[in-house]
Automatic annotation (TrEMBL):
Listed InterPro entries: NADHpl_OxRdtase_5_subgr (IPR018393), ND/Mrp_TM (IPR001750), NU5C-like (IPR003945), Proton_antipo_N (IPR001516)
GO MF annotation terms: oxidoreductase activity
The entry's keywords: Membrane, Oxidoreductase, Transmembrane, Transmembrane helix
Domain called NADH:quinone oxidoreductase/Mrp antiporter transmembrane: residue spans: 132-405
Protein name: NADH-quinone oxidoreductase subunit L
Taxonomic lineage from the root: Bacteria, Bacillati, Actinomycetota, Actinomycetes, Kitasatosporales
């Protein structure tokens, strides 16, 4: 087969698997798991073959016109370059791991057939975004992902948290998609095409009349899809969905789409210094704010959710200084270790029956209960904290190098101001990232108190996937020197300055957090035992849906109590309460948007019920009264009718005489 044919099959196979799963899921349940795993796994294998054949060489472009649409045609176009080839491999591998993991994680879930089909459709939509060479076709995959996320985040629809989170994710991302769609139409109107190659050609020829306006409109959609400030609030709440869904969304689909879109159209954004500055500020605020919020979270999945927001901020920062190679490199590296973090967290949640780090810190021996999750999560957290030689170190240093060059004026496309914003924020975030990574590890695996519950070994389908993802989390960064041909020939190796700074601040953050934990643990040891001890008669571990609904299913009410051994309270001080609440951005949106909209809706309801309906009811009542009066006049007595006729004639005669006299007098 040709490379083009293989590339077409990559998104097509998961789509066919999704359709077959939806059609046969209930009638032939034995085919559900093969239909979930095999098409996605085959797509991953084909994506690897496409990447090997492409080998970072010249981009492959092919297209066929779908249908005449007027002045701006829409083509079913394929654009295959180094970025697309590697991104497709990431999507295929992570999606395959998620599907395999889900066969064990949701083995008792009655809604597994629809879940697996939606995951396959989600994967197909992201692969369509990756390979698409036409913005309208890309938009189809973009929107399908939004719909799939709504259903998957709300998988546990019986819990109010999941229902609210799915609706919030859908509305917030759609809020960004409205200006995004307007920006796409404005871009096509200026360039005369939806083809990505044609648009980049128009940008190179300086044929785009409104680059700043278009770039800012597109950034609104990117902020919504990739959870960047100020449209980031949906992502932490999306943790109400199953953990494998969280891994898929955070590592390879949905949030990666916005970053990938900007990387594909980066010349358009670099044409506007204002847009690049806005992107830099957005990335800086996202990085620092999310890292502070992650440091204060109690839910293990929310810690990882805010971590994702911050790492996406790194990618946005790399794009803001004009280095898409560094952005995509970190996208690929992050995809491996973040998928591993979520899937390992799922193993822990299944083992202990709670998402709460406060509850885990009161358990001892958890590392022995889940050794696979313990070792692989340790690897992933080291990669997240960017400790050499793990993958996160090399990709994060690539971002720091790009920011350093822009800050020193060595970049031809990025403003110096943008470089400084990104560089300072990235270094501060590196310190905070190491802090919340070591905090999570200490609270989860170095707890003291009641022995962690033992529910036996986790299914092999879950633990095997963890070790598979641990390999790129450890080794992917070591290939940085061999990747330039995939990234426009751009070198991705760290410099001495950024390596020392980045690793130094990470080590400082980790050591400070460890010291704060030791101090907090010593204080907790002097606390009366009854205040923190776990219930000895705790119930066995429960499903994730129940864990989400109660947040303290296995250990009574201890998860609700503040953990004296939590170092974040000592590190953040009075800022802890605000960071734990996400700096009240949701409350601000509620005050600025939700309450006024609800008040307006109540006003419209009042006017409709009390004013409009009153007139409608009044007209009906008046007609009914008039009908009743006329009905009473119909007596059937001829004498009555003649008397009424005579009386009416007399009244009319008198009125005529009076009116004539009045007219004569005037």
């Amino acid at each position: 087969m040709t490379t083009t044919t293989l590339a077409v099959l990559v998104p097509l196979l998961p789509f066919l698997g999704a359709v077959a799963g939806l059609l046969l899921g209930r009638t032939v349940p034995g085919f559900v798991r093969p239909l979930a795993v095999l098409p996605t796994l085959a797509a991953a294998v084909l994506a690897v073959l496409v990447a090997v054949r492409q080998d970072g060489g010249k981009a492959i472009d092919t297209a066929t016109q779908l249908t005449p649409t007027g002045s701006v045609p829409i083509d079913l176009a394929l654009h295959l370059d180094g970025f697309a080839a590697l991104a497709a491999v990431l999507v295929g591998v992570v999606a395959s791991c998620v599907q395999i993991y889900s066969t064990g994680y949701l083995r008792d879930d009655t809604r597994y057939p629809s879940y697996a089909a939606l995951v396959s459709l989600f994967t197909s939509a992201m692969l369509l975004v990756v390979y698409s060479g036409d913005l309208m076709v890309l938009l189809v995959g973009w929107e399908i992902m939004g719909i799939c996320s709504y259903f998957l985040v709300g998988h546990y629809w019986e819990t109010p948290e999941a229902r609210a989170a799915s609706l919030k994710a859908f509305l917030v991302t759609k809020l960004g998609d409205v200006p995004f769609l307007i920006g796409l139409f404005a871009l096509a109107a200026d360039a005369g095409t939806f083809r990505i190659t044609g648009i980049l050609g128009a940008v190179a020829a300086d044929a785009i009349e409104h680059p700043t306006l278009i770039a800012l409109l597109l950034l609104a959609g990117v902020a919504g899809k990739s959870a960047q400030f100020p449209l980031h609030t949906w992502l932490p709440d999306a943790m109400a969905g199953p953990t494998p869904v969280s891994a898929l969304i955070h590592a390879a689909t949905m949030v990666a789409a916005g970053i990938y879109f900007v990387a594909r159209l980066l010349p358009l954004f670099t044409a506007s210094a204002a847009a690049m500055t806005v992107l830099a500020v957005m990335a800086a605020v996202t990085m620092v704010g999310s890292a502070l919020a992650a440091l204060a979270q109690d839910d293990i999945k929310r810690v990882l959710a805010y971590s994702t927001i911050g790492q996406l901020g790194y990618m946005s920062g790399a794009l803001a200084v004009g280095d898409r190679g560094a952005a995509v490199f970190h996208l690929l590296s992050h995809g491996a270790f973040k998928a591993l973090l979520f899937l390992a967290a799922g193993v822990i949640i299944h083992a202990v029956g709670t998402n709460s780090l406060a509850a885990m810190s009161r358990m001892s021996g958890l590392a022995k209960r889940v050794p696979d999750a313990y070792w692989t999560m340790t690897v992933a957290l080291l990669a997240l904290a960017a400790i050499p030689p793990f993958a996160g170190f090399f990709s994060k240093e690539a971002v720091l190098v790009a920011a350093e060059h822009a800050a020193l004026g060595d970049s031809a496309v990025a403003p110096t101001t943008a470089g400084w914003f990104v560089l300072v924020a990235a270094l501060l975030t590196a310190l905070l990232t190491a802090a919340y990574a070591i905090r999570l590890w200490l609270l989860a695996f170095r707890g003291r108190g009641t022995e962690a519950p033992d529910h036996g070994r986790q299914p092999l389908s879950m633990t095997t996937v963890l070790w598979v993802l641990a390999v790129p989390s450890l080794a992917f960064g070591l290939t940085a020197g061999r990747l330039p041909r995939w990234f426009d020939g751009h070198e991705l190796t760290p410099t001495l300055t950024t390596a020392v700074l980045g690793t130094g601040v990470a080590l400082v953050g980790g050591l400070i957090t460890y010291g704060a934990w030791r101090h907090s643990t010593a204080v907790a040891a002097r606390t009366p035992i009854g205040a923190v001890a776990a219930h000895p008669d705790a119930e066995p571990a429960v499903s994730e849906a129940e864990a989400i609904a109660t947040h303290l299913p296995a250990y009574g009410d201890i998860a609700a109590a503040p953990d004296p051994a939590d170092p974040s309270r000592l590190l953040l001080g009075p800022l802890h309460r605000h960071a734990a609440a996400g700096f009240h951005v949701d409350a601000l949106y509620t005050a600025l948007f939700v309450r006024p909209v609800r008040a307006g809706a109540q006003l419209v309801r009042f006017l409709d019920r009390e004013v409009v309906d009153t007139y409608v009811r009044g007209s009906g009542t008046g007609t009914r009264w008039l009908g009743a009066a006329v009905r009473r006049a119909q007596t059937g007595n001829v004498q009555t009718y003649l008397s009424a006729l005579l009386a009416g004639s007399v009244v009319l005669a008198i009125a005529a005489v009076v009116l004539s006299n009045v007219n004569a007098g005037s």
